[in-house]
Each structure stands twice: as structure tokens, then as C-alpha cells.
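Q: Got a minute? One more chain.
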Amino acid sequence: MDLAQLEIFLRIAEEKSFSRAAEKMLRTQPAISIAIKRLEEDLGEQLFDRSSKAGTLTEAGKILHSYAQRMINLRDEARAAVGELKGMHRGRLSIGANESTSLYLLPPLLVEYRRRHPEIKIEVYRNFSERIPSEVLERNLDFGFLSYDPQHPSLQSMEVYRDELVFVVHPKHHLARRASVTVKELGAEQFVAHNVKTPSRARIFELFAQHRTPLNISIELATLETIKDFVRRNAGVAIIPRLVVRDDVREGTLVEVPVRGMKIEKMLRIVFRREQSLSHAARAFLAMIRAGAIEAALGIGNEASRKRTPAAAGATAERQAGAVTQRIGLIEVSRAEDR
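A: Always. Here it is, folded:
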């Protein structure tokens, strides 16, 4: 077994065709077939179902696929690590995160990283949270951002940021001028919600159940941006992470109204391989975070001055000054939290 055979195997699995794989790799189809035959002879197992024209993997092929991808990734990491010895003149930083982190936290952070290290290629992938730990383990990602600790012995998880779910409405909504509302009062409202079932969503349902109040979800949507758009059109109200709406509240397109008795926090962690010596590019990114780059990127410390509609600003200035989304010290955590 050699890496060239594994690359051919992975390309066939990706293209689901021997002929298309040969074309993409600038090889002849007989050469591709011979390489796979030798790989199968070496392993003593058939890797592709020859009765299917779609290049379908057998059970043995499915098992090999994960290992083959890791081996190719390790080879690429080795090449990149040697190249990086020249002093950050080349390299790659790959990050996986969910929607809110990708859209609202990473851009200003990565702009600063890019300013410091312009030669490093940055790759950001939006992933479902449950997939990120395996992507980091298989070396497809250097870092993952999660709101829970995957509790894997080969992964290190460090808490870097804490956010809070907040209730937001349109500036002309009848609750926009209120200093605060109760959960009971929200039972009469029509909510716009994310259609992804998460622990945060479950905690919102629990809160309403504890107050014996119905949670009326009239619209379920796929993205947080779409949810905000509906609220900005006064087509409903929402409970959403503060990080997602901080600019909208500051600009006055949305109004944050405190809900008495509601305190639902979301903690963000950065995850990376425990045993893996980080590349120069990855170490530089982690050093930025340890030095407070998240707070600097988000302008934390000035949150109390974010704007609201004139009628609502005076009623909530004191509360906002004490409810600033804050960074938690970088400590390794050992207990799983809700996503």
C-alpha cells in the first residue's frame, strides 16, 4: 500500500467513477484500475462494488476511506510544516464553526490574523456542531469552535467566549418601549425561530413550560440572518444570541427587551487535537486568542453604549451596562455543556 494508491482510491470514491477519476488525475483508466487491483490484493478485500457503475464502496472500502483520508492529510501537513519553517511565508489555517460563529465572530478575528500573517491561507468551513470534533480528529481542521466540550481524550477544549440569548423585537412593536417583560406576557407573541433542534432551543421551551406559558412559534427558518430579517420586517419576535443582533440593536433596527427570569447562556470553546504539535499558523492563531483578540475584534467593553431607539434607550441603559457579553478566562474544561 502506498499513498499514490490511496489518492487514486479516494478520487474514485469522490467521483463515483473510475473513468472520471482517471480524467481528473490525468491518468488512463487501465492504470487506475491496476492501482486499485494491487491495493485490493494487498488488503485482501474488494474495495469497490464492481456490479455498480457508480463506484460504490464496499464495507471494507468504507473502513479504508477514513484512514486513507487521514494519511493523505498527514502527508499534506508534513509538507506544510516543513515549508512553514521559512517563517510563516506559507501555510494554512483551517477552522470549522457553526453559523453564528462563522458569520458574526470569525470575520473580524480573521481580518486581524490576515493583517499579521498575509501569506497564510485561511479556510473556514461552516459545519454542524456534531461533525466538528471528528473533522478536527481526522486533521481536516486545525480548530473547531463549539458551544460544548466533546470530551474526547485526544481533544483539548478551551472556553473563550460567553454569549446570552436575548429577546428582540421591531422598533415599532408594542413591547419595544418596555423596560422589561415577563415570560407570561410573551405567551401572546408570535415567534420566529431556528428550525435546528439544539439544547438552547430546548432550554427556551423549558423556560416557558416552567411559567406555564405557551411558546407560539409561527415561523421556523433555516438561518439566523433570515430570522433577523423577519423580525426587522415586524413579522414576529425572536429569542436569539446577543452576538447575532448586537449591530442591529446598536443601529436601532432591532430592540432588545429584557425578559425577567430569563438567563440562558451559550459558551463558546475552541477545540484542537491534544497530542498534535500545532503548526506555526495554528499556534499564531491560538496566541492571538489568548492575548484577547476576540474581545478586541468585537469591541467588548463598549457594549453599554450600543444604540437603541430613543424611547427605549433610557429604560435599558443601566441593564445593558451590567449585561455585557463577556469573555471567560481561557481554561481547559472537563465537563460537557449544552450546545
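A: The longest strand covers residues 155-169.
Q: Perfect, thanks.
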